[in-house]
Amino acid sequence: MINVALPKGRLGDSVYALFDKLGYSCPEMTENTRKLVFTNEEKGVSYVLVKPSDVAVYVERGAADIGVVGKDVILETEPDVYELYDLGFGKCALAVASRNDWVDDTRLPLRVATKYPHVAQKYYASINRDIEIIKLNGSIELAPILDLSDVIVDIVETGKTLKENNMGVFTRIAESSARLIANKSSYQFKKAEIENLISGVEALI
């Protein structure tokens, strides 16, 4: 039995569709239900639906053998897991963005609004820039508009929201996409099954 942590939403739907093609189907997954755990004993698979930012926690702590999570989450949380494969979808970038007319005043600490404080701290430390982190959880783009921050560090996919708010990307910190991760102990004990799944994914992608 392979236990899979799937992120809720579009990414999880895409991953399940991929695994379904590989023979890891679970018909209950397509039903209109509030269930969070789905098991198909015949196919040897169990799925648990979790918040995207929690996938790596479930995998790291062994509640799931494998999972799919964005590289952005891996960079932010640095979980103790194996990163096995880049699935190539859910592509976006972790980037620094602000109002188009913003000019950095290096005499002052930079005010950075973000959902990714670790990524932001690490990036600005690498360029020796003093910053003040403002931790937000939603509508990050509002921070520079309302002068709550100078810049934001956030994921950018199409950049449409930024453009509509007279903002733009100043620096791309890292590229992100969906990654297949594994619990380290599970990978040792279920190596054949996990590597067989990866081979199937590679063949399809």
Molecular structure report:
The structure is a single chain. By secondary structure, this protein is an alpha/beta fold. The chain contains 8 helices and 11 strands. The chain has helices spanning 10-21, 55-60, 71-77, 117-126, 142-145, 160-164, 184-189, 191-204, and strands at 2-7, 37-40, 45-50, 66-70, 82-86, 92-99, 110-114, 131-135, 151-156, 167-176, 178-182. A 6-stranded mixed beta sheet has the order 2-3-1-4-11-5. A hairpin with a 4-residue loop joins β2 and β3. The chain is elongated. 34% of the residues are buried.
Q: Summary?
A:
This protein is an alpha/beta fold and about 200 residues long. The chain has helices at about 10-20, 55-60, 70-75, 115-125, 140-145, 160-165, 185-190, 190-205; strands at about 1-5, 35-40, 45-50, 65-70, 80-85, 90-100, 110-115, 130-135, 150-155, 165-175, 180.
